[in-house]
Amino acid sequence: MKQIVADMHMHTIASGHAYGTIREMVAAAKQKHLKMIGITEHAPGIPGTVDPFYYRNLAVIPKSIDGIDVLMGCEINVLNNGELSLDQESIDFLNYAIVGIHRQCYQDQGKKQNTQNLIKCMKHKSVYFVSHPDDDHTPLDYDLLVSVAKKYHVALEVNNSSLVKKEQRLNCYENYKTMLDLCQRYQVPILVSSDAHDPSWVGSFDLAIQLLEDVHFDEDLILNTDIQKLMSFIQT
User: Fold this and answer.
1) Shortest CA distance to 195 belongs to which of 139, 157, 138?
2) What are 7-19's pLDDT values in tens digits?
3) Does domain 6-235 have CATH number 3.20.20.140?
4) H/E element holding 24?
5) Domain coordinates of the chain in residue numbers?
6) Is there a contact between 163 and 208 (Cβ–Cβ < 8 Å)?
7) SS3 call for 215
8) CA distances from 172 to 78, 137, 175 (A)
């Protein structure tokens, strides 16, 4: 499989339950021979995370540190009314947004409503990725999710950290296999991410890559094997 060259979902100490600084994440990325990282602190709703004011000062962060390109995003929570947990003024300062369901600030409403809530968030113009859509504690309709992802130009994530913590993520592997089969059928791109909460996890894609190889996934649908392809997707 082609090398993953960008890790676009990770958290620093600013998220409140992660353990590295931006520059420590950059150093880890350089050791893993990555070309780009995306810092995606948790939005309000996750205990201990940043105040929205954090995002309004992102311009001070260099776009390249020690030869590694750095983008600044946010992992925004899907709320039970289908709204995003970050205000528009803050979103406007991001390079991109990821949306995802987190049980810390979301109560399961069943497969149909969970999917509708997620889809409502996917329609936002700054949202390009869905984080870890893999846990049957908050089940999703994958056929609908994938078809809508294609419609709204959103890529679905294969989250290596979810696969590491599969005991906590109900039917994680099975759900990814279903999702990936549909992504190939509908030609919907995916993003492979570490979801690192510590520098030692940056660039860790081993279980995700093994899964993709096991299902013979089309490499051309993996966005972050090529910086130009990834950036074209975000800037479209």
Assistant:
1) 157
2) 999 999 999 999 9
3) yes
4) helix 22-31
5) 6-235
6) yes
7) coil
8) 19, 10, 5
